[in-house]
Amino acid sequence: MRTGRIIRSDSGFYYVLSDGLLFECKLRGKQKAVKGKGYPGDVVHFNILEADKGIIEKIDDKRTFLVRPPIANGDQLYIVMSIALPELDYNLLDRLILLGKWSKLSVGLILNKKDEEKKGFLVSVRESYKNADIRLFPASAMSGEGIEIIKRSLDSKLTILAGPSGVGKSSILIALDSALVLKTGLLGEKINRGRHTTRVSEFYQVGNGLIADTPGFSRLELPTIDKQELPALYNEFVPFKGDCQFLSCLHHKEKKCGVKKAVEEGLIDEGRYKRYLYFLEELTEREERRYK
């Protein structure tokens, strides 16, 4: 029996990378009953049926799991946004940051199209997220600026690229390794469709790491976070929680709240805090509907 990693799943077929070789596999019936299905990133054990085809006998337990896009065993989530067009969607960005942190992944933000930056934009983003515990990568897939720094950060990691359509996720991927143009057919799809569209999540080898390109989206529902968990996902709140009257403080309507005071004093970004309140309300309404 061989061991490998699912790098792509599509219509019931699982493409498994094992010792540099790619196998097209299906799940044995008992695995469907026990595990449901496999996801990109899953470590699997399979038997070869013929040449490059196999049957998956066992799926290992997942270290981490990202709900959307559904990917197993990731180490870091790199959110790709644009410095130019489409304009940066702060609501979607903060949702993705929450999703990554809730999934126990390290989070990075790649700001593509740096060559089109308007004066002061990067400074503003850095200021807003300076205490959010995310790594910022200003870059340009077009000019190559910042690409080498991103590439070094991928070493020995499973990295997931996520973000809305049109921000250049696939362009960043090709900038990281130009050989992927031939390996993935991205250029061909780009010519035929006008703009490359990723249909399913797929991992590619870049240096000693694996990086997943994922379908773009413009809306994201928060995962099943308990509203009491939400404050802990905001790193910038941590230094001020000790000044709250209650350990269970949600930093909203409580009278004595260290986080609210820090916002008033400009120590926590006001925009981040306002979006936090919006998400808190969203989770509260969801819980109320659940228990009606």
TL;DR?
This protein is α/β, with parallel strands linked by helices and 292 residues long. It has helices at 29-35, 90-102, 121-129, 147-153, 169-176, 180-184, 186-193, 258-264, 270-290; strands at 2-10, 13-18, 21-27, 43-50, 53-59, 65-66, 71-72, 76-82, 106-112, 135-138, 158-162, 202-206, 209-213.
Descriptive notes:
The protein has three domains: 2-59, OB fold (Dihydrolipoamide Acetyltransferase, E2P), CATH 2.40.50.140; 65-213, Rossmann fold, CATH 3.40.50; 230-290, Probable gtpase engc, domain 3 (Ribonucleotide Reductase Protein R1, domain 1), CATH 1.10.40.50. The protein contains nine helices and 13 strands. It has helices spanning 29-35, 90-102, 121-129, 147-153, 169-176, 180-184, 186-193, 258-264, 270-290; strands spanning 2-10, 13-18, 21-27, 43-50, 53-59, 65-66, 71-72, 76-82, 106-112, 135-138, 158-162, 202-206, 209-213. The strands form three sheets. It has a six-stranded mixed sheet with strand order 10-9-8-11-13-12. The longest helix is centred in the last third of the chain and has 21 residues, at 270-290. The relative contact order is 0.12. The model is unreliable at 186-196 (pLDDT under 50).
